[in-house]
Every structure is written in structure tokens, then in C-alpha cells.
# Entry
Amino acid sequence: MTPSDAVPRAPAVLGDWLAGLFAVAREEVLDDGGLTSVLDELVRALSAHEFLVALPALRQAFEFFPPAERERFATALVARHGGEGSGRGLLRVRADPVLVAGGAAIEEAIDEMLTRAGLADL
# Structure
């Protein structure tokens, strides 16, 4: 069984599962690049709607970490995607994340409608 096999796929329980994991394995989460990769892949695979469902519990789960540890996790994500430097910018988003995720859900729905109407490739 791989680490990704142990992670729940349902967006409604992902944040709760992470909160429990963070409570019992805080240092392991921060020190294990493989787990960071699995979590990144899981969140990136969510549709905009699934992300909206998962977002409140995900935010609550990551609030378990003090700011310095959240920055450490964010920096690992920046590095994972080929960036350099601190992940501090990811933690200081000025826009409300719920509004950003809602906008992404609307864009996804519009893209689906355009595809169904045959207008997506124009």
C-alpha cells in the first residue's frame, strides 16, 4: 500500500483526515517530501466544486500548524513546482480563498458548457 492509497478520496472528509494526521504526525508531515507530493496531487486533482467542498476543512486542518510551519510546508510546495525561495507569498493571498475557488468553479462550469456546445476550440 502506498501513502496515496491511505488518503481518502472524498473531498468532504479530506480536511478532517488531514487534521487527524497533523495531530499525530506533525513533524513527519513537514519532513516527508513524499507526503507533501501526495497531498499536492490530491488537491490538484479535485474539481473546482470538490475543492469548494473540501476548502473549509482543509483551511481548518492547516491552521493546526503555527505560521512558521505553514510557511515551511508552502515552501516545499513552491520547490515541488520548480520555484525558488519562500512560500510566504502563498500564505498571504489578499483575495478571499472561497471567492477564488467559487470563481474557478464558475469557470469550470462555463468551460464544460462551451465544450458541450462545440464552442470550446474556437
Summary: DSSP finds eight helices and no strands in the chain. The longest helix spans residues 97-116.
